[in-house]
Amino acid sequence: MNHPSVSSERGAEVGRRIGVGLMYGLWKPRVLGAWKVPATGPVIFAVNHSHNIDGPMVMGVAPRPTHFLIKKEAFIGPLDPFLTGIGQLKVDRETTDRTAITRALDVLSAGGVLGIFPEGTRGEGDFASLRAGLAYFAVRSGAPIVPIAVLGSSDRPGRLIKGLPPLRSRIDVVFGDPFEAGDGSGRRTRKALDEATERIQKQLTAHLENARRLTGRRATLSS
Question: Where is the Phospholipid/glycerol acyltransferase domain (predicted)?
Fold first, then answer.
């Protein structure tokens, strides 16, 4: 019998391949800095979230299989077994979901990649409001954080489906330099997590600004 992390990792690799086909088939991703992602060991992807395709896009263009924490509302009907089968993690955002926390830490302890939308929900995609979850996982696991900015264009006509960028339009995915969230002390107190959250916010905001300069984009995707 396979260890759960093994089957989950295989599922995430299947999800990555599906994402590659879908994202490159429907749009024109331009990926910058993917080489910065550590080739092995635990990593946390911190992704700005302004659009429904942000997660699938990162899954499709990232160099390693990714396990995203996804709100439980997305696990409806046939999507439930599908998302679970490709290694994605269901989380209840209204409570302290200990099952989701344990599974996320298991991904990191097995040397996998955990994907998080630190803003908690879809918004402006500017990292202006961070939840403490990202800091907790980073400090608890010691895994480096790789900031990712997904930048696209929905300000021109051509959208066949409401809420999606125009088909075959360019979407930029910019990977940043890995960084440590903790102060090296290993402390997990509320104060330590608050300080880590501040450090993370500064790093993510700086990465987003840099990504906008690199790509020439000043606005994020809007739904």
Answer: 43-153
Q: How far apart are the first and last CA of the chain?
A: 43
Q: Per-residue pLDDT tens for 71-81?
A: 899 899 988 99
Map residue 195 onto helix, strand or coil: helix
Burial 88-115 (b: 16+ CB within 10 A, else e): bbbbeeeeebeebbebbbbbbeeebbbb
User: For residue 54, what pLDDT is reported?
Assistant: 86
CATH 3.40.1130.10 is right for the domain spanning 4-208 = yes
Residues 6 or more apart whose CB falls under 8 angstroms from that of 65 comprise 9, 12, 13, 15, 16, 59, 87, 112, 113
Amino acid (one-letter) located at 207: H
* pLDDT tens per residue, range 97-151: 889 999 999 999 999 999 999 875 544 555 554 566 899 899 999 999 999 999 9
**Alpha carbons 197 and 200: distance in angstroms, whole number:** 5
